[in-house]
Amino acid sequence: MIFIKNNLNKKEKRQFEIFNALNKDYCKDFYYFDGKKRISIYRNEKLIYSLFNKGNLLIVFDHKFTGVILAFKYDKYYELKCLASILKSIILGVKWEEALKYVTPFGKIDLSTCKSLVEGKNVKNVLQLIQEKLLVRELEKTMKEIEDPSKQTQKLELVITKHAFTKIWEKLLQLKGRDKLCIKLVGINVDMLNIMTVLRLKKLELKPEEIEAYIIPVYHLLNEKDVKRAISATTEKDSIKVFVASRYVDVISPLTGAYEVREDLSVFEIALKRYHAR
User: Fold this and answer.
1) Where do the H-state alpha helices sit in 146-248?
2) Contact (Cβ atoms closer than 8 angstroms) between residue 103 and residue 118
3) pTM over the 0.90 mark
């Protein structure tokens, strides 16, 4: 995922050429998706400028290459999300044929690697592919503390999501508000994730302090007070009332009646995803 700043001058373009040539650790993992396949943009200046001139290559850029690093962080999130799905398959004892329905290969984790890891049924082999040691320790701690497989996999995914989006937001803040589109895209995504985390964990009857551990410490349209009030509410239905009073009222309020009947939180998740995609 690569974002945009339209006004690259000649000096910045030259800086990008140099960066692209020298920084293998970042650029070798960058791809352009043409609708059918991924094409590496590493050292492919012809493709880079072709895409840029057509408006298909979107770059956030400053003199420290923050935009390139931000894109790299997003790629890492999707790799981690893939590994989370593999962990889920192993912990729940899902066979590869079934896991294939929800395991999405990304980056260095290709289809054959996914298949090998799922069939190998060895959690340690999956964790070895995660470079962030602090995250690995947090995942290992979660697996030790929670015995129920379904709750364990849910919380492992929450740990990974919190880690990834915290890192993405840190890089985004380095742009110091110069790219409002990025802030909007990431901010709404994080708000959505936090809303659904609160509602799902409230429904599981977790204590407020337990829920707070999985909240991404990023607030966009949803403010921190809203989140804390929702966490402290008695039930998920009370939490929904808090979010109805927030800036997401137009998304959540029309669906409260449907939830009363179905008690399926996915109605809110689908609506929030549609709002984000607008």
Assistant:
1) 149-173, 180-203, 208-212, 224-232, 236-244
2) yes
3) no
pLDDT tens, 217-230? 999 999 999 999 99
Q: Which domain holds residue 21?
A: 10-61
Q: 128-160 pLDDT, tens per residue?
A: 999 889 999 999 999 999 989 999 999 999 999
Q: Quick one: 159 and 206 in the same domain? A: no
Q: Of 25, 40, 61, which one is at a domain's C-terminal end?
A: 61
Same domain? 93 vs 52: no
Instruction: Report helix angle 224-232 to 180-203, nearest 10.
Output: 10
Q: Please answer whether residues 104 and 88 qualify as being in contact, where contact means their C-beta atoms are separated by less than 8 angstroms.
A: no
Query: Is 3 contained in some domain?
Result: no
Instruction: Reply yes or no on whether the pLDDT at 187 is more than 90.
Output: no
CA distance 42 to 175: 24
